[in-house]
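**Fold in tokens:**
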Amino acid sequence: MKRPIVYFLCTGNSCRSQMAEGWARLLGGDRIEAHSVGVEAHGLNPRAVSVMKEAGVDISHHTSKLIDLEILNLADYAITLCGDANDRCPMTPPYVKRLHWGFEDPAEATGTEDQFQAKIREVRDAIRDRIQTFLDELSE
């Protein structure tokens, strides 16, 4: 059986989509093929790398990438993680299932460093939980 290809899209492919790819690869193992991209490429967010490492997921080797239409057209799922990416994602063929999971942008958090770190951890954990639910639904 073919592994489903899951394409996570965000604005800059620096934080949320990178975390989603990391969680999907860890939690999904060889059941899925996960990729992440952005409408733009903003570079990998070092704070995202740090909080994922805390959770036991190494995304330090990831790079910030732009949408690859060839992979998008091969995908089984195109999942946007922010409203901007949902609005700007190119049209997909009818066989690509589009899902939108809107998560707050932790880069826009304000306050102290501790408050910022708490927000990025909150988003990290919310993405992990949504990925697990998605994988459970795929197994049904």
Remarks:
- The chain has a mean pLDDT of 90.
- Helices lie at 16-28, 46-54, 69-74, 83-88, 113-139.
- The CA atoms of residues 12 and 40 lie 5 Å apart.
- The first strand starts at residue 5 and ends at 10.
